Amino acid sequence: MRRLVLTLLGTFAFTSVMPALAAPSVVRQYSDWVVFTEDVGGERLCYAATQATDKAPKSADHGDVWFYVSNWRSGKARNQPSLKVGYELRGDLPGKARIGRADWTLFGVGREAFAQDSDDPALVRQLKRGSELRIEATSARNTRVTYHFSLAGSSSAIDRAAAVCR
User: Fold this and answer.
1) How far is CA 96 from CA 34, 37, 84, in A?
2) Which residues of the chain have pLDDT under 50?
3) pLDDT for the residue 17
């Protein structure tokens, strides 16, 4: 249930990173990661985010593809990792996030995907330690997609986003 509530509350916040909508405030950039803040419905949201460095298949229209680690000042979420894409994901066919030899299942909800709540701490630890995040998922049109994200700067950005929303 927490995932659904956060997805509904966070959809505006996460899509606002896209250029056509109101931009959030940039706190600081750490290599390939950027820390943002934004007020959503009177509540502060702070997140570290990075864009995909590689998208496959090349022929697909992926739209903007971001990976986030989000915090709500109220505590609704703390260090919650998620994927945001420019199309609908299949909710019935889980994706996979991999860092090094470790992997986690991601569950699609609309244009976002989340790990299990119990997996969030381990995934965030590896985001801070690793060098590359690889995600595989399936679109609602049954296209298998793969994304790569640099983790350079992730540790500092994730820590800063959490601190800003305390």
Assistant:
1) 23, 27, 14
2) 1-21
3) 42
Boundaries of every domain in the chain: 2-164
Question: Which top CATH class is 2-164?
Answer: mainly beta
Interatomic CA distance for residues 14 and 60, integer angstroms: 22
**Token pair of 83, please?**
């994927």
Q: How many residues in the chain?
A: 166
Q: Which of 46, 79, 52, 49 is nearest to 64 (CA)?
A: 52
DSSP output for 87-118: SPBPSSS-EEEEETTEEEEEEEETTEEE--GG
Give the torsion through C-alpha atoms of 33, 22, 6, 142, to 10 deg: -80
Q: How many CB atoms lie within 10 A of CB 98?
A: 15
